Every structure is written in C-alpha cells, then in structure tokens.
C-alpha cells in the first residue's frame, strides 16, 4: 500500500544538454514525457480555465511513494514492442476526505488538491469514479507550469464512469473542481489510479523543442510524398494505457459505414477491460510538414474492450465517444482474403514519438510461432525505409492498396539489417472462434455482408482548417462591449432583448459547418440557462428559420472566441442571418463584442425585441455595427474520396442534391468567367424554369419549390459547354 503524507513537495530541476549518442535510457524516457506535453493542447474538453492560481488558493498535497525499481530496458525478452514509461499506483482519493474547499463567491466554490511524488518524471491520473453534474468543471495542471487540462464536465461522463487524464511532465500536479451555486451536489469524483513516470536524477530538456525520441533510422510519415498515404495516416493513433504503457493503434471501418470508433491494436497492449477503460488515444500527432513543427496532440479518453485473443494477439476496443471531426479521423479499410502481397508499410509511434513510417519493398512472407499449426503471421524481414521499435506494437501492416493486412506483434532490434517483424494475419484472426469476444468478424462486419475487402471511410465534415471564414469584423476594427443600464448593448439588457443576429451576404451558396463567437460577459444562474443558435434566411431581416441548436450557457467561456460546431452542415444562399435566441433565466448574463462603424453607414447587427428586429440600441440611438462573429463554411459538400477544397465530381459541372426538395445546387470546378444559363424541362420537353447568372459564383442554388414532384431535365449552359442532368424533385 502506498504511503500518503500531507505537505508540500519540492523538486529541484537540473537542466543538462548532452549529445544523443550518450543519452541514457532514463533521459530518453523523460523526453517521451516532456515532448509529449510540450505540444499538448488537451484531450476532449470544454471551455473554462482554472482559478486556483489567480486566487492564490492554498493547496494541501498528497504524497505518493513509488518503488525504486524501473525497467532496465523496454526491449523485453519476448520481443513485444511495447514501451513502459511509468509505474502504476492504486489510490483512493476524493473531495469528501482529501484536499480543501474554498468559497470564492456567493455563486462559486472550489475544491483543490495536490498530488506529488518527488523525482518522478510525470504524473498521469485515472478517475475511477467520474460522474459530474451539469455546470461542474474539473481541471488538472502541473504545479510548475501554466498549462492545464480541462475543463472536464458532465460531457465527459462516460458509460463506465471512468476518466483517464493524460500524463503531465511534473512531479507535482493540482486537481481543481469548480462547483457553481446552482449545483446542489457536484456528483461523484474519486481518483483511483496514478501513473508515476520512472524517476530520474536529472531532467533533460531538448534545446530546440524538436523530437528525437525514436531511433535515427525512423522516417517521419510527413516526409513520404504519397497522397493516398497522407490520407490513411489519419487512421493511426498513439495509445497510452493505464498511464504507464505506450502502443500504437488503428481506427478501422466496418461494413455499416457508421463511423463507429473501433480501434485495433495488440492483445499484449490492452490486456483487460481495465486497460481499455483507462486508455487514452492520441490522433493527428505528427509534423505539420517534413522537418516542420509538431502538431498539438488531440486525444480522446476511455474505451470498452469488445474482443481480445491472446493466441492471435489482437485487441479491438470501442472508444466511449465519437472521434471529433477536428481530429481528421480516417477509418481504415481492411483485406481478409489471405492472398499474398508484395510491398507493405506500417505507420506507428515508436517510443511515443510523432508518426513514423516503415516501408517494405519486397513480398511479405508467411510465418508461424509457438507451434501454432497455421501460418498465422505475415513476416517482414527487413524495411528498406524506416524501422519499428518499442511503442510500435499494435500498428497495422498495410498493403500497397492501403488495406490493413496484419497487426504488429513482435520483432527484433531496431535499425538492424534484418529485424524480422511478425504481424498477426488479419484473415487468420477474422473468425477464430464462435465467441464474439475472440474474433473480429462480428464487429467489423456487423451486418453480415461477408465482405473480404472493405475500403476506408472518411467522415465528410473533418475539414475545419480548410473552411472558408465569413466575418464583418477585422483586425482594424475597435471591439466594444458597452454596457447600458444594468445590461449590455449586444447582450442581455433591461430593454427586453430576445435575440441577436448578424446579417451575411454571399455570392452563391455555402455549407455552414461552424460558428465562432467572441463572448464578452457570461454568467449562468442555472444548469438550464441556454441560448439557441439559429440560422435564418431573409433579405433585410431574419425571416424563415433554417436551423437551430441548443447551447448550454455555462459551456461557453467569457473573454474568448468560442467555436460552436453545427450538428449537421446547413446550406445557405445569398442572404442569411446567424445569431442567438436567449432562453436565459432572470439573473443570467450574456453579451458579445461588436464593432461600431458609423462612417460606413452600414449595419449588419440586429436585435429582436417584442415588436420586431432593430439595429443595436445604445439606450439613446440605433447603431451602425457588426457582431464579432465568424461563420465557417464550404463551397461543396465532401465525400471520402476527395481532399479538402477539391471539386467532388469528375466533370466540370455537377448538381447537388439529387433528388432535390426546395432547391438544387449548380456546382462548378472553377468560377465561371462568362454568363451561365440554367433551364429546367419536364419530360414532355416543356420549359418549366429559367435562371440567368451574369456574374456566376462557383456554386449557386436554383429554386425547385414551385415544381411538382417528379423527374425533370436540368440543362446548364456555360463557357465549358452544355451539361444536361436528369433530376428528381421530391416532397
């Protein structure tokens, strides 16, 4: 049993610089932790920030003793390529009996506690009981750094009531929980497991912030110029399990094509349900470009073990939440025909490093071990490019058509001429037993199509970095947050404001993916305090409601830009409005920043009162103003075969959607430079509608609401010729 002592833990940091060839395994181990966090943004979290430092709250520390032993090497005798970086200690820590409570104001109380283990290189946490009430927020942050993880909220409540938190590179960390006054109870929070990074007597800090964790013969995946491979790499993730071990996994597709978050790895990585529930999965951890900066880590936490087979060394887990679209997830395809193949590659995270690639140019061999009668392994004797090493276990072997064919089980030493890596064959592990927990087929072919080959799946809305922003506020505008008589011009005020809206005009059509708003003041008196994000059509003021989505007020953050993703992309045309309807309580506060522009005599910001829509009102005058709001959208919808921003059709002109209801889009691969004419005919050849565009955008909508349900011919005449489409109008 661990010893627990109250008191401050003090750690002296020794920074040394040394040549890599003289770096000890302990220093390399610390690099894993330091560089892992240096570029860390956070696992899935929600708006908010810790306030313990701001209020100088006193912190009582629980000291956790560690054993003095640590592995001499991560290259174990059985050749499994896992990487062990920390010691696991079981604890029982909760707000009921540990830490201290502080009343910050009449509306907020805070619980705070420190965890320390002098000399350890990192601390990772697993909350064995995690079930928060709405409005409650939890943060975890290192004592010696301004970084933090969180806010973790009720949105992080998982099916199994467990929340693992990424390791932080410090020997002292703080846990902070903020409880608003309207939350009568905070819920259930109990710390059950701590991962202590193996201790070292000195800390090593790489001077350039670069990544040199893995062997020199490894090759960054971003340096390999293959377009298809640069798509498939997004299926690969780094796995930390039980806050102590590192492996690699792959997000896999299934025959239902439903984006179910299934991750395939090795059985010797995820050994039981506890390891699955405590696992953290890191996506998109790679360089921005070859030899470029390292991207921030993006992670999701917690999973459920669906199937595991020790004989065939595979584990299949389901992450307890959908993979966020901003993580650029790709669900890899697979091939279980068992046919031989030449050329292969694996993408992996050796020693937890950024994604690397190992390429084999020769035919893959069959192999067997442990007296198993079948050739249940694909064997790669040597890689012409790159290698694998500790931390690569669980990575997938892809063939030249980018299908998963195997899972890395074990192999020889890195950077040697012949290392003989053994990958369990996916076809051999497919239906190993009628027991669903021992096979892959029932999970990857849930609708029993008997597919032997399945292509990859890429969700259509993963391209936030490529979205086209629309905003009326730029860097030269002076932002205002003017208050009036107990309220705000662009927010809740005593004049009875009901909603805010910003007017946008575009040439053509666009799919809205997300809205970014600059929040000024925010105060929620209840977990039921809400805003409703709305999109309206209209020429001079909001008219027809096109879309709405509820937003909990306490989940927004004041004095920050808040990104709100739409539940589904919404098509808008020419003139539209985006804003919020207030569903707030009497004492709630919400306001936005706005820019006043009297010299332009142009107003795009509107407020709704009981008797209609008006420009923002200062208390004495109506203003020419714009709300500090940005709409993010795309010219086209996406399919998984196209890269962001590419025209999603083979021909230069196309239409979407088909069948149509009230309108159909005309889509061009480039902006026309000459007039465009669209004509719609019925099947008897009668002209039903004509649309002429002298200055056509790259896409625009043609109204079909006046057409009866049926089949029509849509003819598009443009500079590239005449294109005819058979379309259907449904009601």
Structure notes:
Strands 16, 24, 25, 26, 27, 28, 29, 30, 31 and 32 form a ten-stranded mixed β-sheet that branches. Strands 3, 5, 17, 18, 19, 20, 21, 22 and 23 form a nine-stranded mixed β-sheet that branches. Strands 33, 37, 38, 39, 40, 41, 43, 44 and 46 form a nine-stranded antiparallel β-sheet that branches. The protein has four domains: 4-204, no CATH class; 219-454, Thrombin, subunit H, CATH 2.40.10.120; 464-634, Jelly Rolls, CATH 2.60.120; 653-729, Immunoglobulin-like, CATH 2.60.40.3080. It is built from five helices and 53 strands. The longest helix has 14 residues, at 25-38. It is 5% helix and 44% strand. Strand 38 and strand 39 (545-552) form a beta hairpin. It has 731 residues and is mainly β. The radius of gyration is 29 Å and the shape is flat.
Task: Fill in the keyword field for this structure.
Thrombin, subunit H, 5% helix, nine-stranded mixed beta sheet, Jelly Rolls, disordered N terminus, 4 domains, ten-stranded mixed beta sheet, mainly beta
3D shape: flat
**Ends distance:** 68 Å
Helical/strand content category: mainly beta
What is the number of strand segments? 53
Number of discrete helical segments: 5
- CATH architecture annotation of the largest domain: Beta Barrel
CATH topology type of the largest domain? Thrombin, subunit H
User: β content, as a range?
Assistant: 35-45%
Q: Which stretches are poorly predicted, pLDDT < 50 over at least 5 residues?
A: 1-41, 201-211
User: Would you tell me the overall average pLDDT?
Assistant: 85
Supply the number of structural domains: 4
Question: Can you tell me the CATH class of the largest domain?
Answer: Mainly Beta
C-alpha Rg (nearest Å): 29 Å
How much helicity do the residues have?
Answer: under 10%
Largest sheet: 10 strands, mixed
């Amino acid at each position: 049993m661990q010893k627990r002592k109250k008191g401050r833990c003090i750690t002296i940091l020794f920074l040394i610089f040394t040549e890599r060839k003289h770096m000890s395994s302990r220093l390399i181990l610390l690099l894993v932790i330091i560089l892992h966090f240096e570029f860390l943004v956070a696992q899935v979290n929600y708006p908010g920030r810790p306030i313990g430092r701001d209020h100088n709250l006193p912190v009582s520390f629980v000291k956790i003793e560690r054993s003095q032993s640590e592995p001499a090497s991560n290259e174990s005798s059985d050749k499994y390529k896992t990487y062990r970086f920390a010691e696991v200690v079981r604890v029982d820590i909760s707000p009921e009996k540990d830490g201290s409570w502080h009343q910050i104001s009449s509306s907020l109380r805070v619980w705070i506690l420190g965890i320390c283990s002098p000399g350890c290189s990192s601390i990772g946490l697993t909350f064995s009981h995690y079930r928060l009430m709405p409005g409650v927020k939890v943060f975890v942050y290192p004592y010696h750094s301004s970084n933090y993880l969180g806010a973790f909220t009720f949105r992080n409540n998982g099916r199994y009531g467990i929340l693992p938190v990424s390791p932080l590179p410090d020997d002292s960390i703080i846990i902070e929980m903020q409880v608003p006054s309207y939350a009568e109870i905070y819920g259930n929070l109990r710390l059950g497991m701590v991962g202590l990074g193996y201790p070292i007597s000195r800390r090593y800090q790489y001077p350039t912030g670069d990544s040199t964790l893995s062997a020199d013969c490894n090759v960054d995946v971003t340096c390999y110029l293959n377009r298809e491979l640069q798509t498939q790499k997004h299926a690969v993730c780094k796995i930390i399990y039980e806050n102590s071990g590192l492996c690699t996994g792959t997000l896999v597709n299934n025959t239902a094509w439903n984006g179910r978050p299934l991750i395939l790895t090795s059985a010797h990585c995820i050994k039981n349900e506890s390891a699955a529930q405590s696992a953290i999965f890191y996506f998109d951890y790679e360089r921005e470009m070859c030899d470029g900066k390292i991207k921030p880590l993006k992670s999701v936490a917690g999973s459920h073990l669906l199937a595991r087979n020790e004989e065939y060394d595979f584990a299949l887990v389901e992450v307890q939440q959908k993979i966020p679209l901003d993580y650029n997830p790709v669900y890899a395809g697979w091939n279980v025909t068992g046919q031989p193949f030449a050329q292969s590659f694996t993408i992996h995270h050796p020693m937890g490093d950024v994604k690397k690639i190992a390429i084999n140019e020769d035919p893959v061999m069959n192999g067997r071990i442990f007296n198993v009668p079948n050739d249940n392994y694909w064997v790669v004797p040597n890689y012409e490019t790159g290698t694998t090493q500790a931390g690569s276990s669980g990575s997938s072997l892809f063939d030249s058509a980018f299908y998963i064919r195997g899972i890395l089980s074990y192999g020889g030493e890195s950077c040697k001429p012949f290392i003989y890596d053994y990958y369990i064959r996916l076809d051999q592990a497919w239906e190993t037993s009628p027991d669903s927990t021992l096979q892959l087929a029932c999970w990857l072919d849930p609708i029993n199509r008997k597919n032997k080959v399945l292509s990859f799946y890429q969700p259509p809305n993963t391209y936030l970095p490529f979205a086209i922003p629309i905003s009326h506020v730029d860097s030269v505008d002076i932002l205002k947050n003017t208050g009036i008589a107990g309220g705000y011009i662009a927010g809740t005020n005593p004049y009875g404001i009901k909603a805010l809206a910003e007017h946008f005009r575009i040439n053509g059509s666009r799919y809205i993916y997300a809205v970014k708003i600059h929040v000024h003041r925010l105060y929620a008196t209840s977990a039921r305090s809400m805003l409703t994000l709305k999109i309206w059509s209209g020429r001079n003021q909001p008219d027809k409601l096109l879309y709405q989505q509820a937003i909990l007020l306490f989940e927004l953050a004041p004095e920050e830009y808040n990104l709100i993703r739409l539940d589904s992309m919404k098509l808008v045309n020419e003139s539209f409005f985006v804003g919020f309807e207030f569903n707030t309580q009497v004492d709630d506060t919400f306001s936005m920043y706005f820019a006043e522009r009297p010299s332009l005599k142009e107003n795009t910001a509107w407020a709704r009162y009981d008797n209609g829509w008006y420009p923002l009102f200062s208390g004495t005058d109506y203003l020419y103003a714009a709300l500090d709001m940005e709409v993010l959208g795309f010219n086209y919808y996406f399919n998984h075969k196209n890269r962001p921003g590419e025209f999603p059709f083979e021909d230069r002109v196309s239409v979407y959607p088909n069948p149509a209801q009230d309108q159909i889009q005309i889509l061009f691969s480039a902006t026309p430079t000459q007039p465009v004419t669209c004509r719609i005919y019925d099947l008897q050849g009668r002209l039903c509608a004509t649309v002429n565009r002298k200055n056509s955008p790259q896409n625009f909508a043609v109204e079909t609401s006046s057409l009866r349900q049926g089949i029509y011919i849509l003819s598009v005449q443009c500079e590239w010729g005449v294109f005819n489409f058979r379309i259907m109008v449904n009601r």
